[in-house]
Amino acid sequence: MGTRTDIAADIGVFGGSGFYAFLDDVTERRVTTPYGEPAAPLHIGKVGDKRVAFMPRHGPNHEHPPHRINYRANLWAMYQAGVRQILAPCASGSLRPDIHPGDFVVCDQLVNRTTARRDTYFDGPDAHHISFADPFCPELRAVAIEAGRQTGITVHDRGTVVVIDGPRFSTRAESRWFRQMGWHVVNMTQYPEAALARELGICYASIALITDYDTGVEGLDGVEPVTMEEVFAFLETNVDRVRGLLFSALAAIPADADWDCNRDGPRPDPTSPHLH
Q1: Domain ranges of the chain
Q2: pLDDT in tens, the chain (276 residues)
Q3: Cis bond leading into 125, ω under 30°?
Q4: What letter does residue 3 receive in the DSSP assignment?
């Protein structure tokens, strides 16, 4: 089993597109991992009596597009710091007419449509197959849902996120297929983050901020396909809402939380040459 170098934080937060800083009074901790460099140093501060580690998953200047993020290094950095729960806000597109820009979706299911991402710590020779039927921690999801409602945010308490490679957005045909399959939102980063967190025994909850209607949704007139400029402009005006939800959720996570995700099987050994 790999060992953590110290216990620096209790809870982790990944910042998504447009969300590159979180806490004001922080200690910057540069981390070296067996899987390469993470996207950014950990910024560790306190929220109440909890120590929180923040990392912008794309890097401090959005220099890592979604298909080039070193997800294994990012998650391992959190693990080394002692993190046991991760809240993962992310920008997402709506696939449904009843899920609007500005809404939040606390997803309960995931469909992976990415290819060639390094998505496991267990590359052999010892095999370990995690349970991933429910990819997001139900206890942490409940905390995020209640936190959103307490702050007056429109929160959808379930939904399926389909994760695509990016960095391009969907074609009209792809988006139509996603809707026909009954999926709710589309995103580029939630896989393999959620799977790697489960392998490390870290509870993980996705909080999708809806920024657009992807290529448009049937029944809604005048909706144009999403552009990068529109997404970033929307995020800039909504980042305070994301922060508000996170602060509320962080305060509500029990200090002694020991949920099922924290006990899920063996941990990877970072010294194994088969893992690198």
Answers
A1: 11-267
A2: 344 555 589 999 998 777 777 888 899 999 999 999 999 999 999 999 999 999 999 999 899 999 999 999 999 999 999 999 999 999 999 999 999 999 999 999 999 999 989 999 998 887 889 999 999 999 999 999 999 999 999 999 999 999 999 999 999 999 999 999 999 999 999 999 999 999 999 999 999 999 999 887 766 666 777 788 888 888 888 888 999 999 999 999 998 888 888 776 567 766 544 333
A3: yes
A4: -
DSSP 74: H
The token pair that represents 43 in the structure block: 């910024």
Query: Which residue numbers are catalytic?
Result: 212, 214
Tokens of 75: 């998650």
Dihedral of the alpha carbons of 153, 90, 92, 225, in degrees to the nearest 10: 110
Topology of domain 11-267, per CATH?
A: Rossmann fold (3.40.50)
Rounded distance, CA 145 to CA 7, Å? 28
Strands, E, within 113-270: which ranges?
155-156, 160-163, 185-187, 203-212
